[in-house]
Amino acid sequence: MSHDYESRWVYRAKWTYLLSVVGVLMLPVLYTLWISFNANGFGAAEYDFTVFWYVELFKNAEIRTSLAWTVLIAAIVVAITVPMGVMAAKFYQRTRFKVPFVFLMLSPLFVPADVTAAALLVYFKNLNRLVEGLIGVELFDLSLWTAVAGQITWCLPYAFVVILVTMGRFRPEQTEAARTCGADAWQAFWQVEFPQIRPGVFSAGAFVTILSFNEYVRTNFLKGGFDTFPTYLVSYMLNTGMTPEVYAMAGLVSLVSMAAIGLVLVVALRRRIG
Amino acid sequence: MNSVPAVEVDGVSKNYGSVSALKPTSFAVPEGRYFVLLGPSGGGKTTTLRMIAGLIRPTTGRVRIGGRDVTDQPANRRDTAMVFQGFALFPHMTVEQNVAYGLELRRLPKDELRDRTAAMLRLVGLTGFEARRPSALSGGQQQRVQLARALVLQTSIVLLDEPLAALDATLRKDMCFELKHIQESVGTTFIHVTHNQEEAMTVADEIALIAAGTLVESGSPREVYETPRCRFTAEFIGENAVFSGPIVEGALRIGGAAPFVRDAEPPLAISVAAENIDLHLQQPDLEQTLPGTVVDVFYLGFSALLHVEVDGGPVVPVRLLSKELDAGIKSGGRVWLSWDPDHARMHTA
Fold this sequence. Notes:
Chain A is mostly helical. Chain A has helices at 8-25, 27-36, 52-59, 61-94, 98-110, 113-135, 144-167, 172-180, 185-214, 217-222, 229-240, 244-273. The longest helix of chain A is centred in the N-terminal third of the chain and has 34 residues, at 61-94. Chain A is globular. The mean pLDDT of chain A is 90. Chain B is an alpha+beta fold. Chain B has two domains: 7-226, P-loop containing nucleotide triphosphate hydrolases (Rossmann fold, 3-Layer(aba) Sandwich); 239-347, CATH 2.40.50.140. The radius of gyration of chain B is 24 Å and the shape is elongated. At the A-B interface, helix 8 and helix 9 of A face strand 6, helix 2 and helix 4 of B.
């Protein structure tokens, strides 16, 4: 969009900016995706479109298992993180200590992933030994649940912020109005507030799905004796280099993420039209 | 008439940390009364109303509704309904769903629910708007929907928190008349918070003036207007000339004069309504007059408002009929003020 009195050079600079962002962020991904559909793989002189590499992926039982773990973890992480995000955002609106609370909620973003992961690993190892000594059960052995815990530390700040933005538009008078109509606190939330913050909750869910699906560092440290798709992809890549299968695996991750974003956009647009 | 008050506020106060929003306050609202809490912003009137509603908990004191102590009950367990200043309609529901919301919660049969909702929308003049969303209504219509949503519950008390403050002046006036009519026709006890004295005078059976966290004075609109006991009331309600000064030989001294007070019990101040002050262009042949200078003349149609600076005293308002301006009253002119001693009111607080 151009303003009536905007300099042509400013206008061009904006477009250059936009295109360079697309060029740096999106093109490499799209290029990888393009290669993943080439029967001849990377660097070949000829391009023959195929889904062969993708079919090969799904023939691999290890990959299927890793995908199943990834989906399972993502589902659990979404189911726990999104309600936690809603509760945190509600608490934020009520507390007088907003700045310290936001800092606390966002703090996982300020610590490098490998540091958090290593710290959690040591923490769980110690906790496991302690609990085992007390009750004789290895409650905190590395497992699905330690991986879930690690991912939640990463996803919660995003869910919190996304929900907080939507909740900021909600007028607290409406909760009071519902209460004076006879609703208890839960009914006021569920029947009046929730329908209005649903787009934010939905976006947070999609966002957390992508974050969980793509998460590597924390999962790799904290998972039990299984692989998720990203951990499988990295170890495969380290073993074999950039084979056509790796391109297909990378392509699959990109497609899932884009599909999730696309879904959010479609829902948002449909709401605006409706 | 029931002898138990509809609402009894008994020594209720509210502190936020070390800040006191309302000092211990007591009053009772008889059943069927249109009761107005009037006062400046931040004075504690909305806090009082919200404690009656059960939206905030009093720091001290008890709230009784129909004789029953409800201090520990939240809003949804009280026999009250509430109208808010704005933004309180549920935007994701239609007008009909908004009005029916409280009845849904009470699990009323569908037929009765629909009938009562339709009757309420008829009462507030919004038949035909059932399927609209609140965003498709004007400000006045939204407030009517809120009123319908509160009245449909048939609670014994309806609380209104600045219900007309977001409306423009003409609409506010019309809605005032309408609120009064509706309250009279349904007979429910209304407690209405406003900072607008004209709104308060129009709707109220009884006005309680709340300022700086205290209930200053209460009475019928006529009482608080004509015979205010407190100086604050005289300054807040109507247009009054308020004088204070040293007491000499049982009379209040204003400038050099000791005017128009009978039996001065050392009052702290006296006040005279602006329309009860007589204005003279020549020094009149009266025992006591206050000389002064006209500072401003405001022509307001039927009447005119003057600001007169009393020599050695305050600037006071004087109301005249506009035709009296023809006698040659103008800004900067010398005038003399007097009034019937019966019109002077003494204030000790």
